[in-house]
Amino acid sequence: MKKMLILICTSVIMTGCDVARKLPLQVYDCKLSLADNQQNKIESMSYEDSLIVISFAASRNCINFGLKNKLTTPIVIDWDGCSFIQNGKNLRVMHNGINFVHRNEPMAKTSVAPGTVINDFVVPSDNVYYYTGFITGFYNVMPGWFFNDMFKITEKDALTPEIAYAQKGQQISVMLSLEIDGKKEPRVFNFIVKDVVAL
Q1: Which of 144, 148, 145 is nearest to 124 (CA)?
Q2: Which of 24, 62, 80, 165 could cross-link to 123 by cystine, CB 3.0-4.6 Å?
Q3: Is residue 65 within 8 Å of residue 54, measured between CB atoms?
Q4: Whose CA is closest to 29, among 55, 7, 58?
Q5: E strands of 75-135, at which residues?
Q6: What are residue 72's phi and psi, to 5 degrees?
Q7: Within 10 Å of residue 186's Cβ, how many Cβ atoms?
Q8: Domains of the chain
Q9: From the CA atom positions of the chain, what is the Rg in Å?
Q10: Rounded to an integer, what is the distance from CA 143 to the centroid of its chain?
Q11: In what order do the strands lie in the sheet with 41-43?
Q12: Stretch (H or E) spanning 183
């Protein structure tokens, strides 16, 4: 299978002439893989069925993917029907191209033309937040938009090795709401933390 380009989701920071807010230092990395019992899994982070081929890549705060439409008709992604499932909670997703201010508003559907690839990402909209910054007589911290991490991986989480490594085996899921000729064809992708690595 040819490698697909994966859009990398990074935290967006608005910087100014004084001091930019720094992201917490990442001290652990949670390595994700599609679950062993995931149907149609073809590689650790790839899936293929009669409709699509999709490859995933996880960053510290989102799931990136490249999706290829194998059909001769368009596949439509209904973003408002998609969800991110973690710790038993069904969370609304946000994807690339959405203004952060409008992250909880209805999203336009995306049509994937026959034989083409779309690169995008999903992140729980609750994990996107605005930091207001502050001004003092000594220095200023500029405001900006940030993403919370999917797992406890940074120094701010007051991690002990026991807490960090206990995340091994945790599962998250992404449901993509696909439509073909008006018929819903949802796909659920289950990921598991295969390993936790100290950086």
Answers
A1: 148
A2: 62
A3: yes
A4: 58
A5: 75-77, 83-86, 89-95, 110-112, 117-124, 128-131, 134-135
A6: -100, 5
A7: 13
A8: 28-191 (2.60.40)
A9: 18
A10: 23
A11: 28-34, 187-198, 171-176, 83-86, 89-95, 117-124, 63-69, 52-58, 46-48, 41-43
A12: strand 183-184
Write down the pLDDT at residue 22: 66
Which among 185, 186, 189, 187 is positioned nearest to 173, based on CA atoms? 189
Alpha-helical (H) ranges within 22-169 are 161-165
- Rounded to whole angstroms, the Cα distance separating 176 from 59 reads 18
pTM score of the predicted model: 0.85
In degrees to the nearest 10, what's the CA dihedral of 140, 142, 146, 151? Answer: -10
Per-residue pLDDT of the chain (199 residues; tens, 9 = 90+): 545 544 444 433 333 333 445 678 899 999 999 999 999 999 999 999 999 999 999 999 999 999 999 999 999 999 999 999 999 999 999 999 999 999 999 999 999 999 999 999 999 999 999 988 877 767 777 888 989 999 999 988 888 999 999 999 999 999 999 999 999 999 999 999 999 999 9
Angle in degrees, CA 62, 107, 127, rounded to 5: 30
